[in-house]
Amino acid sequence: MYFWANNRHSSKLPGITEWWLSKAGPRKGRPGTAANPCHSPLRETITRQRKMTRTSPSILFLPFCQLESWPSRLTVLRSVKFRWHLLAYVLLQFVTIGYGYMIPNASQLGFGASVLAAGVVLLPGALLGAASAPVSGSLLDKFGPVRPMFTAMIVGLLGTVLIAAFIGAGSSMVMFGLWYFVYMLGFSMCFANTMTCGMAVPPPELKADGNALFNTFQQLSGAVATTVMAVFLGVAQAGHGSARDAEFVTATQSGAHWGFVFLAVVMACAILANLCAFASKR
To answer: pTM to 2 decimals?
Structure first.
């Protein structure tokens, strides 16, 4: 770790160090004699550090941390195109994790589904996402990034709009599964390709740093999405009785509806972010 000291008085060592120097005189069997006490290795080290502070702003090296390297990792964010693709990637992850939390909870608390049914309703869409990932890559290689990705994102937006518009009182688990399947069809065809397009921007020496940013923000986005969806349900349910009460069920349906509307808006923002990325020239 480097501490930055540009003050002209920064070469003045703390009092504790001066005290230690006074105790670090020559000892028998060690370098340094009474005639030449400044030949102590500790004194030589401190003297070198004092000289460095007069000529360089970087001083006092502490092992195990190298902060001088971290600003170079963030230089990958200087690219506008990379930043837009990263934002689109984060928003897409937000929507998917948001559905992963909201649909099972709303199904059980607001639509009377069993635990098994609430979990199985996500299964077809999840299988579709796993199966279509290789197809999305081949389409990217064949047609380029723009047409396949925006077609897929429009399909994903359609799925979010259908969920927000048609999921309400009396909705069945089949309807949940069908609209979620439509969303996953679009999501799975554009999510990985968004990262691919983003990672094509940095130079080779910054590829690892760009990949680290994508992975870090992916995890952060999932955590935030879970929290936000829980807030939608919690605020709607507050003060409306307990589970299985008619008032509580209605409140849960209302909270889920506004959560689905919010996810549709986030999906639209993800499309705009990728659009800005492709429109950017740097």
So the answer is: 0.72
